[in-house]
What we know:
This protein has 205 residues and is α/β, with parallel strands linked by helices. The chain has a single domain (6-204), classed as Rossmann fold, CATH 3.40.50. The chain is built from seven helices and eight strands; from the N terminus they run αααβαβαββαβαβββ. Strands 1, 2, 3, 4, 5, 6, 7 and 8 form an eight-stranded mixed sheet that branches. β2 (82-86), α5 (89-96) and β3 form a beta-alpha-beta unit. The longest helix has 22 residues, at 15-36. The protein is globular.
Amino acid sequence: MDRHSLEWLYQAKSREELEERYNEWASAYDKDLLGDWEYKLPAIVGDLFMKYVKDRDAMILDAGAGTGLGAQYIANNGYKNLYGIDMSDGMLEEARQKGIYQKLGRMLLGEKLDFPDEHFDAILSVGTIDHVPPESFDELLRITKPSGFMVFNMRAVNYEAQFRGKLDSLEEAGKWKLLEMTEPFLGLPGEDAERFYIGFVYRVL
């Protein structure tokens, strides 16, 4: 296994170890994923986001911003009111250098987020949800305005194993409505199950 790889990240045994691995990889992350690995998630999830969030002035949170690849994709298409959070200081520094965010901050998904209720028009999360507890959606919903959008992806294997119950229970409780769930798609070259992802779009109620 490559020392710097998504599998290497997935095998982190704690949030602290995951943060350390992201910090270690931060400076080479964009080159590895975009250049050597043909990483497709930012474009696929970004296109899904733009399909539903038409307002280029919408206030958007990039939840689990990493180095900013997802936000960079939509910024290149005219979105400019971007805010980002991530657990890794190293990743945040790389994101800051892109010059696309109004503000960046270190926060952990799964813990209370330092934003007011109903603050954002939309949430974008690319390549992050696999690493956070399902309860993270409670806080993301709290900080999203009614009629706002939440657009994210996760690995198909994790949807069934970890997240489906939570997503369905929030819909049953009237917290949000599923607008689109993609068929599983390849986010990276290869055919193994770990490389297949599902994209989701919910409207907050």
